[in-house]
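Before a colleague's protein record goes any further, I have to sign it off. Alongside the sequence sits a line of tokens, each denoting a local backbone shape. I want your independent view on whether this chain really folds as the tokens say. Where you disagree with what is written, explain briefly why. This is what I was given:
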Amino acid sequence: MHIPEIFKLAGIAIVIVGLALKLRPTIVVVTAAIVTGLISGLPLFSSQRVFTSLPFLTKPGQEGIIDMLGRAFADNRLMILFIATLPAVGLAERYGLQEQAARFIRRMKAATVGRLLILYQLFRVLMGILGIRLSGHPAFVRPLVFPMSLGAAEALAHAKTVESLPSTEVERIKAANAASENYGNFYGQNLSPVLPGILLVYGVLKGLGYTVDLWTVVFYAIPIASLSVILGALQFWLLDLRERRRLAAKN
């Protein structure tokens, strides 16, 4: 029986409806994957037997949908290792990690939000060069870098005026923290021949028939990574300049 190609998009409809109804995302996505696979003629389980009455269940020589899902999870299990850091971060925050980080940075008179974020971006680039994967946002930005940034901004504000930071300024600092992490992580990982970014580019080029090696790809990623550091430094310098002007206008 020939199934129209349009029916193979049923998984998209299931995801849209499931998320619109606020159902559990994991169940929605897995259900969409199974339905799409069955409609496409894939077997549910890998097997060499053929059920003539239920041909959609098993087909010889094909990997089953359930087996595909299990293999994909096993191949990408390292992607969820950051979950192991969340309990440790939660306990550290419970016992005053953020307060201590903010108090530490307030003691440094030369510290500003922009300078701190420039250093953090360089740190993330260095980790990328060394091939070290870090869960930046949950493990560093939220519990450490953001409180330190607020501490630096509050120290500058109290030195100029007695007012507290407005909510718009806090949100702007939060966005700058996320930008620093994203710049450093995204471009820094392209400077290591063992991280997924470079391996993906290398694999695509090899598949298209280009003769390249990993170090050549890394070499050509250096100018872009350097430019990202320069533009990030400019952005964070302007953030400091804006805050100084705002405080000067208040005075």
Summary: The mean pLDDT is 80. Residues 83-250 form one domain. The radius of gyration is 25 Å. Residues 214-250 form the longest helix (37 residues).
